[in-house]
Amino acid sequence: MKLLFISTSVGAFGSGVGGGVELTIQNLAQYLLHRGHRVHLVAPSGSLSPYIPIVALPGALHSFAQNSDRGDPIQFPSDSVVAAMLQYAYAMQDRYDLIVNFAYDWLPFYLTSFFTTPLIHFVSMGSVSDALDHIIVQTGRQFPRRLGMYTHVQAHSFGDPQLEVEILGSGIDLDRYVYVESPADFYVWIGRIAPEKGLEDVAAVSAQLGIEVQIFGKMQEEAYWQECNALYPQAKLHYQGFFPTEELQARIGRARALIMTPKWVEAFGNVAIEALACGVPVISYARGGPVEIIRHNETGYLVEPDNIEALAEAIGRIDRIRRSKCRAQAEKEYSLEALGERFLAWFQGIINGAGGSKL
Ligand code: HBI
Questions:
Q1: CB 297 within 8 A of CB 318
Q2: What is the pLDDT of residues 345-357, one digit of tens each?
Q3: Distance of alpha carbon 173 from alpha carbon 335, whole angstroms
Q4: Whose CA is nearest to atom 9 of ligand 1?
Q5: What are the distances in angstroms from CA 211 to CA 255, 316, 331?
Q6: To test the ligand 1 pocket, which listed residue (6, 7, 10) has its Cβ within 8 A of the most ligand atoms?
Q7: Which residue segments constitute the domains of the chain, with CATH numbers given?
Q8: pLDDT computed for residue 78 by the predictor
Q9: Whose CA is nearest to atom 13 of ligand 1?
Q10: Cα atoms in the Cβ-side hemisphere of radius 13 Å centred on 314
Q11: What is the per-residue pLDDT across 78-134, written as a single tens digit (0 to 9) for each?
Q12: Which pTM was predicted?
């Protein structure tokens, strides 16, 4: 297959600003290239990749869609990099079998019907604004099967039960994660230190049970971090910092469990499959992506959201989970190959003619 990927518009590819979706593009392209497919990535200037051929275009980056208010009208810069990327894709479309958009922006969705080479979309977040919800749902209705997402719960967040979406999950390079059989006596929490991640609940349960919780992730909101510790002075939260994969997995592998306390609907939750890959069970609120990742009582526990008592009770039962099952689930469902084959099946279906316009 000859594939053109359109990158996220919030930052140069490889800068990490695009977060989870950069990881998805990186892992997927790595697998497809390895399988002999051609993948080109059109992305903002300054984008870099060790092995994906990149067409880097000048143009203004977009602001984060999740930072606008739900009712805001669509706005984008006059010299938008998204416009530049779509213009390039349109001009070059005959060279490709398929064009896959990874940008969470209005324009690519709107232009779906203008392309002759099928343009399909991997939607990298749940619902964040009415205007984007509208164009995403409209595109999905007119072109069934042309929307791909991480999870069912993410698809449901757009409010249209009839929306036909390819659910693709996620995947990581398991060779980079070392399985640890016997844990030490600490827990881990991984994520941006920000209110939507619910760190105050981890502080509460640490104070209540007297357990040490090592905290990994970008210190996005220092004031929030201070507030969580001030609320629960007895909590034993030890901030470790933000680490690249090699270092992160080496530090979390010996944890007794990963605790996740999301306050928003995570589209997926890559940290959960990173933990499973190390044999670390996951205890999470039954909210968002983790609901479709954790096998309750097998590879971790799903507890009633925002219920500290339930969280504490699950932590008390953590030794019942067999760590080898955690690694086994990661190998079965979240390897690069599993991810790549799910995407290839989606792509092949579109190339074979499914997903044409319903109008
Ligand atoms: N916002 N406007 C816009 N465009 C994107 O491509 C985008 C975004 N917000 C977040 C984001 N992409 C990615 O970081 C997440 O999907 C992971």
A1: no
A2: 999 999 998 777 8
A3: 6
A4: 64
A5: 12, 11, 30
A6: 10
A7: 2-171+336-351 (3.40.50.2000), 174-333 (3.40.50.2000)
A8: 92
A9: 18
A10: 29
A11: 999 999 999 999 999 999 999 999 999 999 999 999 999 999 999 999 999 999 999
A12: 0.89
Containing 246, the helix (H) or strand (E) segment is helix 245-252
Task: Indicate which residue's Cα is closest to atom 11 of ligand 1.
Answer: 18
Q: How far is the CA of 7 from the centre of ligand 1 (A)?
A: 10
Distance 63 CA to ligand 1 centre (A): 8
Give the span between the Cα atoms of 54 and 44, in whole angstroms.
9
On whether the CB atoms of residues 206 and 232 are closer than 8 A, the answer is: yes
Q: Classify strands 2-6 and 98-101 as parallel, antiparallel or unpaired.
A: parallel
Cα separation, 45 vs 27, in Å, equals 21
CA of 8 to the centre of ligand 1 (A): 6
User: Among 8, 39, 64, which residue's Cα sits nearest to residue 194?
Assistant: 64
At 217, the amino acid letter reads: G
Ligand 1 pocket member 106 (CB < 6 A): no
Phi-psi region of 159 (alpha: psi -120 to 50; beta: other; left: phi over 0): left
